[in-house]
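Below is one such protein, fold included:
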Amino acid sequence: MSLLTANNLTVSIGELTICKKTELRFAADQTWAILGRNGSGKTTLLHTLAGLREPQEGIIHLRTQPMAQLQRRFIAKQLGILFQQQDDPFPATVMETALIGRHPYIESWRGETAEDIQCAESALKSVELEGFEHRFSSTLSGGEKQRLKIATLLTQNPQIMLLDEPTNHLDLNHQIKLLNLISKVTQARQGVTLMVLHDLNLAARFCTHALLLNPGEAPLQGSLEEVLQAESLERAYGWPVKRFNINGKVFYHPQ
């Protein structure tokens, strides 16, 4: 079942056309890598699919409903986005920040319930921030702040997750742990996840599908096997890439 679709989608920014009259289908139990060189429009496309930016042409559907006709509170219960840059100008503790994810569910006349707090605690534990609840988020390292952003998204509990460079500021240990976590959450919720990534090997390891952007060409989309071929990657990135198959696993290395 398609959870997020785009029909006849045209997205551009300045002189750059990211996609033109493109059909996109993102279904349950899929994890998509959005790939392409710097400036190819990955973030712009992600924001458009989240309903935060008007496309030049086309309609985006959340399940069967046009997103433009839906209230933001309703959308936020179904779809969550992890921004590449997201600074909080107000002082807040780690727990207060994680609880922002519950805002779509909280009516204006009441505060957080024990269930809301339990959701936040569980999410913080899953990203190894248990025990940080009373620290101010401004005191965290870059990697800890990134893990807190992911915990906030998990607290929101959306079935559709759009992640802009989720491995930012993370060391190798936490990159693998958090991408494993995102994969498990996607499967458990029978959801779909779209991730802007720069590392082809992480995409090959954790994603089921890929959308490869190349200015001047239609986006290449499909299964990893269909999209992540050396010739397509070389054309998109402007650099030769070698594809290896070792013990049944695929790896990529720039020449």
Q: What stands out?
A: The chain has a mean pLDDT of 95.
